[in-house]
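Protocol step 4 of 6: structure prediction from sequence.
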Amino acid sequence: MKTRKIWALTLVLALLIGAMGGVTGSFSAKAEEITFPLAEPITLTAWRVAATSDPKLGITTYNDIEAVQAWEKATNVHIEWQIPPSGQEQENFNLMIASGDYPDLIFDVAQYYVGGLDKAISDGVIVPLNDYMDNRLSDYNALISRNETVYKDCKTDEGNFPAVYFINTPDQGPWYGMAIRQDWLDELGLAAPVTYDDWHTVLKAFKDKYGSKSPLWLNYHAGDVFSVFSAGYGVSVLGASGAGFINVDGTVKYSPIEDGYRDYITMLHEWYEEGLIDPDFYSNTTATYIPPDDLWATGNAGAWPDIYTLLDIRPYMGADENNKDMNVVPIAAPVRNEGDTLHLRQYNFTRGTNACAISTACKNPELAAAYLNLGSKQEYAWLAYYGVEGDTYNVVDGKPVYTDKILHNPDGLSASDAMTKFCFRSAGMYIWDRELQTAGPKALSAINDIWPSNADGNYMMPNITMTSDEANRYSVLMGDISTFVEENTTKFILGSRDLSEWDSYVQSVKSMGVEEAVSLQQAALDRFNGR
């Protein structure tokens, strides 16, 4: 009799363990409530790229991070990380998919899975989260429901919620915009330029007074990587985010064939002839966000697009003897007419590109969903992004404030490195503004006030998704079109092609199939808006 009871208990235990598969520990997937910490420890497996490859931080796995250790203690959930070798992420991901041996959680499927998230679902790699949104993922659901566009952005064209995304909380302001030598303006008795005409006056004064080689620095697409300087003409330059495509009240337009683009490069041609823009602009590569040191540090540049974190430290980054007292300040992007509102700028979508999905191999997706939901709760988000209270942060006036372990690390780590060493990024709330605790006054002014002061970013294309066939056709079309537009933009500005040939240029771009490319973008935008 005793033996029979033992056998029955053993059988029940075996069935429970079999049902849980990759999740170890004692837990029922059908439980009405899932509360953390769990009564018994469990393990989930997760594929995710490395937090850092910097050996001085001593992080080989996420479990080396103190905040991750604290998260495990708070949840009783241990994560067994599968981290691909640095530089081999795509290859490692492909091998994992080909093997069919998936972990419970997979980060950033959209970046690595050919065909996108809907295909990953239809191929049986990840599970849609729709059935969990109102219960296991209720906090995440509330987080993304704050804004209709964000909610759409977290769905696919087929109506699936494919993963738990990183959601900028709060919304992020622009970290990139125009900067200018305020000390030169002061010496010249000039006000900060507002319109393009004002900018022309200022740049000419910079050239005449200081012999500036590059009064205005631009990259080789005759603008900047986020169309900050061309925004006043309502157009996006080729190398900017969106590759020249803009969304004007639901209608896709290709900027390089618009009248505003013609007017913009006509102005730049005139400025080039006067020596007001970098004479070597066309050799500045697309990856160049900011001017090289030999321009700004030597006084050969008077204005340029810049990154907010550099504004307060420019004089200490190698300025020569004649420019060590330079005062570089953020300035609003130029407009054609004073009072205009710009619709293009460096823009951060509230929904980030990173996300965590639940694989079809996970035997307890309800638990996995409830676990992922924690990142949308403030207390867990603080634990991830600020670390352990009393150690890496304290609460001051109701807000988390880093301690000197982060801000002035005793081992000499920069604040950024200390954040990486002691904190981590969890899916759900992405508390980006923690970075502002290390920012100077100019940086704070730029990102919060000046750069967004006259620009709303409404022309930015949302995170649209093309089908595989659409994407392949689009790639074929735009390869030749982009090269042609780039070459002719440079020719128009240099004057080697006369702007009287603009109409001929537009017809050439159309003959190459740009209208079909626009229609592909439009179809994807329409699907996005219909989500």
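Step 5 (inspection) to follow. The chain has two domains: 21-171+351-429, 176-346+458-463.
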